Amino acid sequence: MSAIQQTAAASAPYNDYHQAPVTEKQMAYARQIATRSGVVLPWEVQQNRYALSRWIDTHKIAKPTGQFSNYPTSKQVGFAERIARMKRREVPQECFRDREMMSKWIDANL
User: Fold this and answer.
1) Of residues 72 and 13, more confidently modeled
2) pLDDT of residue 7
3) pLDDT, tens digit, for every residue of 3-52?
4) d(CA 94, CA 7)
5) Distance separating alpha carbons of residues 63 and 94, to the nearest angstrom
6) What is the 3 state secondary structure string of the chain?
7) Mean of the pLDDT values across residues 62-84?
8) Is the whole-model pTM more than 0.85?
9) What integer best gives the mean pLDDT of the chain?
10) Residue 110 Cα distances to 33, 79, 87, angstroms
11) Residues near 30 by Cβ (< 8 Å), separated by ≥ 6?
12) Number of other CB atoms surrounding residue 25 within 10 Å
């Protein structure tokens, strides 16, 4: 690499993840978290991707822990039912009440 190329590379404004600007998608997600939780999104955090990523990890909303939180997702159920049709068998009823059990059934029947 020539001296000119080294100087240009060293002065590139966003050659490092820690200094890269935030993405629109990242910013939208952070604003959504701030709005839902009532937390202020600091200006300094909005200035680089790494800082905003850390803020998001700290403030993101936890997954629900209600009565149905351990049930399989609709995508899991649909996929399992497609596998069952192809294999000409049924998905065990207990799999419809436990996400992990459904996942294991899918893995075992692929």
Assistant:
1) 72
2) 47
3) 454 444 454 454 565 678 889 999 999 999 889 888 899 999 889 899 99
4) 63
5) 23
6) CCHHHHHHHHCCCCCCHHHCCCCHHHHHHHHHHHHHHCCCCCCCHHHCHHHHHHHHHHHCCCCCCCCCCCCCCHHHHHHHHHHHHHHCCCCCHHHHHCHHHHHHHHHHCC
7) 85
8) no
9) 83
10) 37, 10, 9
11) 22, 41, 45, 46, 52, 55, 56
12) 8
Distance between CA atoms of residues 18 and 99, nearest Å: 37
Long-range contacts of 22-28 (CB under 8 A, 24+ apart): 22/46, 22/47, 22/48, 22/49, 22/52, 23/49, 26/52, 26/53, 26/56, 27/52
Q: How many CB atoms lie within 10 A of CB 23?
A: 11
Counted residue by residue, the chain has a size of 110
Alpha-carbon distance values, 53 to 14, 39, 45, 74, 107 (Å): 16, 15, 9, 29, 32
